[in-house]
Amino acid sequence: FVIQECYVQNTAREYAKIYAAEAESLEGFGEVPEIIPIFLVHRPANNIPYATVEEELVGEFVKYSIRDGKEVNFLRRDSEAGQKCCTFQHWIYEKTNGNLLVTDLQGVGMKLTDVGIATLAKGYKGFKGNCSVSFIEQFRALHQCNKYCEMLGLKSLRTTHQKQRKATSMKSKHLPNSSTIKKTVPKKTRETRDFIPSEH
């Protein structure tokens, strides 16, 4: 478990470095969250032979991203660090084509620790995360873009979803006489649908 913890956090740290390089080159983006390194120490004389060592973070510890969607955290949503963490998640989701997501972003200010990674079941580029795939699905459904997402030119996950829904609903409104609708929609329902747009 300790070895996996190091592996996950240091992998997330490498992604965060790439994100930082892209974000810092943008005018006005400012400071970028950093995932601090974690080191594995072998202590053969100790009852617990393996331990992890990392920098001590002093200050208010905040969870900027959450696992279960139940917790509402205003610092996560409204603070600069919180918004930039959400943007980092969006960036990595887009970068890996939705195959990988860094979760449990938490720490003090812009310094983060104890993060997790969710991957699809097959993993991503030989790496398997330590969190459920459901975190990726939840992120895709709940993420709200902010100004930092826009600065990085990330595609809105919501817009894509809405476009698909809109295309489906528009098809049924504008093509009331198409053969597919005749087969699946009773005549009464069709007449009602034809009538609704004329009221507006």
UniProtKB/TrEMBL annotation:
It is an enzyme of class 2 (transferase). Its main location: membrane. Its EC number is 2.7.11.1. The keyword Repeat applies. It holds the Pfam family Alpha_kinase. Residues 160-200 are annotated as: Disordered. Protein kinase that recognizes phosphorylation sites in which the surrounding peptides have an alpha-helical conformation. Regulates cardiac development and cardiomyocyte differentiation by negatively regulating Wnt/beta-catenin signaling. Belongs to the protein kinase superfamily. Alpha-type protein kinase family. ALPK subfamily. PANTHER family: ALPHA-PROTEIN KINASE 2, ALPHA-PROTEIN KINASE 2-RELATED. This is Alpha-protein kinase 2. The lineage of its organism: Eukaryota, Metazoa, Chordata, Craniata, Vertebrata.
